[in-house]
Amino acid sequence: MKRIVLGLLAATAMCLPAFAADVQPALLYDLGGKFDKSFNEASFNGAEKFKTETGIAYVEFEVSNASQREQALRRFAEDGRNPIVMAGFAWSEALDKVATDYPDLKFAIIDMVVEKPNVKSIVFKEHEGSYLVGVMAALASTSKKVGFVGGMDVPLIRKFGCGYVGGAKAAGATEVIQNMTGDTPAAWNDPTKGGEITKTQISQGADVVYAAAGGTGVGVLQAAADAGKLGIGVDSNQNGLQPGKVLTSMLKRVDVAVYNAFMDAKNDKFEGGINNLGLKEGGVDYAMDDNNKALVTDEMKAAVEKAKADIIAGTVQVHDYTSDDKCPY
């Protein structure tokens, strides 16, 4: 396995052009696959935008099991890749070791804080964006029961769920049915189980279901559409996966995070530290396009925009589950 991984990394690195000596970006995806239609794919889109605008290629690696993380990260560091961006909190343990061993290289991690001077930690206020789609879900619901399907049962995903509950109940939902797909990384890429959970929630009365589950969410959106109900996407704009059946998507601008990390390194503006991106910073939002415009009335949009303005102004404070491992709604 080691030979295969190193061989793949070496082959991937060959695509870097010679003129990119000063900045040689690398991107490491989380479990679930590069084209998961969600978190990883948003990372890929940010890297592709950088490559298109600058002409500078990047190396990449799709991890398939946890044992590969430190090996892959260390190999990129040994090769002098700079900056090295990791998508997902699960990279933190490997990064803590490798960033210490390579203090002159620049690293960025999304969804986790690693306190090293050469590490940019990019985290998001997912609870704020989830609150907005919760408001929209409640207003679109006729049963006033809405659902939430999380991926792996970790505090980060409960942070999504709690924000969603807060927004939904503020807008009149009487019940929010919540389920997690599992407690292992396999939960990020199990659309079949996601669909089964969705069908169960619908049988319990939910008519709008929000998925924060990586590739598993594709199955959630499919099941909701097949049942004539509405789904809500996450991370990327997933409105087009089931046109006219996805109420909205909670946008988490992972693409912008990757793009900015690469570009900052290119422009010699890369700095370590914590970036915490919410509605005010443009890090999260909700998606409107031709695929869902017929589903969202002017009144619904006005209510969501008011909630957005109130959160930005500080008059509405959305509880962050990760602050105390509790959800008060």
The structural class is alpha/beta
Helix and strand pattern: HEHEHEHEEHEHEHEHEEHEEH
Which oligomeric form is depicted? single chain
Described by strand count, sense and barrel closure, the largest sheet is: 6 strands, parallel
**Gyration radius, in Å:** 20 Å
Give the mean pLDDT: 93
Principal-axes geometry comes out as: globular
- Helical run tally: 10
| Strand adjacency order, main sheet | 2-1-3-4-5-11
Broad CATH class of the largest domain: Alpha Beta
> Approximately how much beta-strand content do the residues carry?
15-25%
Low-confidence stretches: 1-21
Number of domains: 2
Identify the CATH architecture of the largest domain: 3-Layer(aba) Sandwich
Here the CATH topology of the largest domain equals Rossmann fold
Keywords: Cell membrane, Lipoprotein, Membrane, Signal
Signal peptide: 1-20
Subcellular location: Cell membrane
Domain ABC transporter substrate-binding protein PnrA-like: 33-317
